[in-house]
Write a structure and sequence with these properties.
The chain is α/β, with parallel strands linked by helices and 248 residues long. It has nine helices and eight strands. Strands 3-1-2-4-5-6-7-8 form an eight-stranded mixed β-sheet.
Length: 248
């Protein structure tokens, strides 16, 4: 059994301390390398391949996080695993989450849910909050955006609901794609029926990741897509709130 007391080696893209975007309060965020999705709006395509990361032991990362514990706890925060996709390295993720808990930190897992079957009870028991990225409401749109299927994410969301695991849904609003009423309403209805979704973050699409795509020799196909207007973002939030959900 993996525990925080058993060091595990994994591939890490980077880590950072941030506020307001990766869970409540000030967070120590570890970005793991490797992701099965190929999102057209991905900000960090350099995290797609696990081999692009640097090998660290869980003890290395926990020692780094420990330096910030007083600052983080004073800011009402914790530690977040992001990526990439943390569930592509489930043993490493489990060791880190348990280690963060032993440091007294609130824990969050930022995931697409596509690899939900790899999230063991041991891993989820050490997770205080799941930041669940639902990319689109319709299977065809999801496939167009990510090159993968929507169903695994929905099944994982239902599994989290059965555990009564706190969830924040994150929804990226892409004009002309995910801002369509049928997309927003499908996600809103699904999330509202789960019963464990504490809030929905509507995140405006942007092109800040485009230079990374170009550096990797890849074409950023959404380069000409404008960010959503404030009115478009508010319209999506209204749709989520109409389903009884809290939005930000």
């Amino acid at each position: 059994m993996t525990t925080a007391l058993t060091p595990v080696t994994g591939s890490v893209h980077s880590w950072d301390v941030s506020t307001g975007v990766d869970g409540p309060g000030t967070r120590f965020v570890t970005f793991l390398s490797g992701c099965p999705l190929r999102c057209r709006y991905c900000q960090n395509p350099d995290t797609w391949l696990r081999d692009n990361g640097t090998r660290y032991s869980s003890d290395d990362i926990l020692a780094e996080a420990a330096k910030y514990v007083p600052f983080i706890t004073a800011g009402g925060g914790g530690a977040t695993l992001s990526g990439g996709e943390p569930l592509q390295q489930p043993d490493f993720a489990t060791a880190l989450l348990h280690g963060f808990k032993e440091l007294g930190l609130h824990t969050a897992l930022d995931t697409s849910g596509y690899l939900g079957p790899l999230a063991s009870d041991e891993l989820l028991d050490a997770t205080d909050l799941v930041l669940l990225d639902i990319k689109a409401g319709q299977p065809d749109t999801y496939r167009r955006l990510t090159s993968r299927e929507l169903e695994p994410t929905l099944l994982f969301a239902e599994h989290l609901a059965a555990r009564n695991q706190p969830v924040w849904v994150r929804y990226v609003l892409v004009p002309g794609i995910t801002d369509a009423p049928e997309e927003v309403n499908a996600v809103a209805q699904f999330a509202a029926e789960l019963g464990n979704v504490e809030r929905v973050d509507v995140l405006p699409f942007h092109t800040l990741g485009q230079p990374k795509w170009e550096a990797l020799g890849r074409r950023f196909v959404l380069a000409e897509t404008p960010p959503p207007t404030a009115e478009q973002v508010e319209r999506a939030r209204i749709a989520f709130r109409a389903s009884g959900l809290t939005t930000y």
